[in-house]
Write a structure and sequence with these properties.
Helices cover about 40% and strands about 15% of the residues. The strands form four sheets. A seven-stranded parallel beta sheet has the order 5-4-3-6-11-12-13, sandwiched between helices. A two-stranded antiparallel sheet has the order 1-2. The chain has a two-stranded antiparallel ribbon with strand order 7-8. The protein is built from 13 helices and 13 strands. Strand 7 and strand 8 form a beta hairpin. It starts with 9 loop residues before the first strand and ends in a 24-residue tail after the last helix. With about 400 residues, it is an alpha/beta fold. The chain has a domain of about 280 residues: NAD(P)-binding Rossmann-like Domain (Rossmann fold, 3-Layer(aba) Sandwich), CATH 3.40.50.720. The relative contact order is 0.17. The protein binds nicotinamide-adenine-dinucleotide. The site of nicotinamide-adenine-dinucleotide has 29 residues, from helix 2, strand 4 and strand 11.
């Protein structure tokens, strides 16, 4: 491919192409917001394995770890390379920029593109960790995936985002071709037991535990090892579709897995935790019915009081490294979502949700911000990027 103009086009919240320059700029802008912490007396940079490092919370954890604590290690994600017709996925370009950031800041960071659920990827990553670092201090598990093949049975499991037990009727936000927001009502049928079980197979704690098993079997767990998997609780407005639905069942499994792993890792002086993060606009979250509306109303209510994935990830690293005390709830989960579940925030968003009609939606929800955030997931609408300049999409994956 040669340099060409790359414009946003697509269907709904899914765009066909990503802008390499915009994706790179997002990473450098994130890094520029992070204040480095120099820890005296520390001989070596901490080693982290971050699974889901190219997007959303995993990307934020990677950038925050590198920029704040000079973390080194391996990032794993699953991205599509450029083809003759299409650019690569946005995470491909963000990974190139993250690798450059690591290099510029002296962090030895390798990025692997592969399916985290397979044994072959685990073998490759662990081999890399073993040869390059000899062990791991932190494993951050931030995968959001639609399907998983169980490596033991070979069965393919598809996750669904549905309520459990009863049909759910919810308001939802859609945008037409010219970006005009429309408030609609949709009905989502309840999942079958098999669909719920499949969702738990994909998004529950099984694969996280397999990573810990593999690290343990490879002798790669360092003293004081900490692993964190990301979870979500959210508002009563979204609970039927999220926390009380199929994904919520998977999150419950993930949280139970943390306690099983935690007991085992205690032998190494290690910890397994979940971190409950706040709502954010990501590729994974925009697929959830009603979340676009909820997040747009939340933004209107809180403005920049919404804590970004980057800010939450800085908090997470501060807590994991002991720079700040762990902020956990009675179930031992790290809570980075307190700003979202704050009573005043929930009252404000509930009032807006209830008042929202097709006529009032423009006044109650920050739909312009939401639409731009979706475009930024693909590297568009990034301030400072000149989209009238041709851009080369055929960029290689960073050398490992
Ligand atoms: N977005 C939110 O509002 C929110 C809130 C709280 C918690 N979380 C949790 O954060 C985690 C990450 O979600 P996100 O919203 O950041 O998602 P995302 O879609 O932005 O990123 C998903 C990441 O997973 C990687 N990935 C997907 N399938 C993979 C596979 N098979 N192998 C390796 N990597 C794979 C992708 O490459 C990407 O890096 C999830 O556990 C999610 O539930 C999200």
């Amino acid at each position: 491919m040669t340099a060409r103009l790359i414009q946003p086009s697509g269907r709904g919240f899914l765009l066909f192409d990503a802008h390499p320059g915009g994706c790179a700029r997002i990473v450098t802008d994130m890094a520029a917001q992070v204040q480095p912490v120099t820890r005296s007396g520390e001989r070596e940079r901490p080693v982290a394995l971050i699974i889901g490092s190219s997007a959303g919370y995993g990307l934020a954890a990677t950038v925050a770890g590198i920029a704040r604590y000079g973390v080194q290690g391996v990032g794993l994600c699953f991205e599509r390379p450029p083809t003759t017709r299409r650019t690569a996925t946005a995470g491909w370009y963000r990974t190139i920029a993250t690798a450059t950031l690591a290099q510029e800041t002296g962090s030895d960071f390798a990025f692997v593109n592969g399916d985290a659920f397979t044994d072959a990827t685990k073998d490759d990553v662990l081999d890399l960790v073993s040869k390059r670092f000899g062990g791991i201090d932190y494993l951050i598990y931030s995968v959001a995936a639609p399907r998983r093949t169980d490596p033991v049975t070979g069965a393919l499991h598809q996750s669904v985002i549905q309520p459990i037990g009863a049909e759910h009727v919810t308001k939802t936000l859609e945008f037409d071709g010219d970006g005009t927001p429309h408030l609609k009502e949709i009905r989502v049928q309840p999942a079958t037991d098999a669909e719920t079980a499949d969702t738990v197979k994909v998004m529950g704690g099984e694969d996280w535990a397999r990573w810990v098993d593999a690290l343990e079997a490879g002798g790669l767990i360092r003293p004081g090892f900490t692993t964190v998997a990301l979870s979500y609780i959210g508002s009563h407005l979204t609970s039927a579709i999220y926390r009380a639905g199929t994904i919520g069942a998977a999150k419950l499994h993930l949280e139970r897995t943390a306690s099983v792993l935690g007991d085992r890792l205690g032998d190494y002086g290690g910890r397994a935790l979940t971190s409950v993060n706040g709502a954010a606009v990501t590729q994974a979250s925009t697929a959830i019915p009603g979340i676009a509306l909820y997040v747009s109303l939340l933004r209107d209510a809180l403005g920049t009081g919404m804590s970004s994935p980057l800010a939450q990830s800085v908090d997470l690293w501060d807590q994991l490294t002991g720079t700040a005390p762990l902020d956990t709830d009675e179930q031992g989960r790290i809570r980075l979502d307190r700003w979202e579940l704050d009573e005043a925030a929930q009252t404000a968003v509930t009032e807006r949700w209830e008042a929202a009609t097709p006529d009032t939606i423009g006044d109650l929800a920050d739909t312009g911000w939401f639409r731009d955030e979706v475009r930024r997931l693909y590297g568009f609408e990034v301030p400072g990027v000149d989209y009238s300049v041709p851009c080369e999409p055929d960029l290689p994956w960073p050398a490992v």
